[in-house]
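User: Show me an example of a complex going from sequences to structure tokens.

Assistant: Sure. Here are the input components:
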Amino acid sequence: MIEFRQVTKTYPDGTPAVQDFSLIVPSHTTTVLLGSSGCGKTTLLRMVNRMVDPSSGAVLIDDEDVSDAEPVALRRRIGYVMQHSGLLPHRRVIDNIATVPRLNGASRADSRARGYELMEIVGLDASLGTRYPGQLSGGQQQRVGVARGLAADPNILLMDEPFGAVDPLVRVELQRELSRVQADLKKTIIFVTHDIDEALTLGDQIVVLKAGGEVAAAGTPAELVQNQQDDFVSRFLGLDSGRRSLTAATADDGGWLISDAQGRPLGVVDSQPDGVQPGGGQPGGAQFNGAKPDSVRADPVQHP
Amino acid sequence: MTWVLDNLPRIGELTLAHLALSLPAVIIAFVLSIPLAWGANRVRVLREPVLTGTGLLYAVPSLPLFILLPALIGTSVRDPLNVVIALSIFGLALMVRSAAEALDAVTDDVRTSATAIGFSGVGRFFTVELPLAGPALLAGVRVVCVSSISLVSVSAVLGVSSLGSLFTDGFARNIIGSIVAGILMTVVLALICDLLLVLAGRMLMPWQQPSRRRRPLPARAREVSA
């Protein structure tokens, strides 16, 4: 369990990055910090491994204050994955993955063996091990980044917009892969993103942040989409623009075509959504054939 | 040409002397430039004064420096040490700015990520920043190397033997072959050293070679094969 206890961070020039932020991140789950750039989400993430020290308040891992831990040792037992992968360009893929075990004092052979194990876990062909990061595609580099984050078998994985720089198709694939890996490994993940669909796909818990690290809303993906007490959250989730207000109409080849409030088609369902009359115009909440079921939750409240 | 053939042993001897004067200077300049550059980058207010200051050393005329040094460090005028020290100073003048810029060009992404995964400050410098600055450092060393090899020749005027001696002797005794050999050998030596540096760079920094891609066939060849 990771606990943020009333943390505040003010940078030396006086800019407040985060103010009085408190949060509990349960073990073995994924917590997404969701917000626009400048909301302090990366600052919060970096407080966990002491890349940033809070000006006041404390961050605790399993009830131990991280400020009592030696930063370098602390970082070696927490996985970190960042945007643009952050791989070391001058080391081969396998040595990149093996970096942290090596830093922890494992032998080169053991570290590499562990590296190849991880390449398999994240879906990378072992033949890529001897390449340099610059010779891989963006998606492959991010997989290496994830593998490296997992190499020392940390309990905690910090992910700072890890899939932010890859194209949408690859991103969806990487998200799916991460979900699969997480289902097996059950790490405590803090995942920072500004992509709402990504948050809904990956988060067990989502925390929507306003500027200054103010919590606009927190809850499970379903709770967030269903209860919109806050204009900011509605706007951020796209609820106000009707992106998640769904309408159903009979599709050409049978089944039901689901569209959002603007008439943008989202997917097709086989069975008739509850309470929907032929001819459409009513919201539905049924299972979709579409690619991203999490992102097309219906919102009956908003629709007329 | 006959002069050259008759004097091959002497040319060889002078080439070695030339190398013995210039190579230590290149190495000293390189080794000293790294901590200076690191410090200059680290303490931002000192960066420009240090870089400009060392850069200005290059403006010191070489001949007076060769003559001044013995007085300063108590060596005899013909001591090769003077030459090595003077060349190290010139090399440093060129190298410090290159090194500072090379180290500064390591991206924040890599630095941040190295810190985040648990490199200590010192470990990060030697195993991440220094190697990544390698290509730009090499570019600086190549300039210093060629420049030193060419500058060494001046020492001949002082009576310290180098390939420059072929040049001064040739002038004094009016032997064209000697003059030409002196110039050519200096150029050839500089080229060979430069080439060796490039090869060493390829061996030490294999990551920066473009991946072996299959180049598209030239247009004509494609037509033929089609």
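The lines above are the inputs; the final block is the predicted structure for all two components together. Residues 2-236 of chain A form a domain with the Rossmann fold fold (CATH 3.40.50.300).
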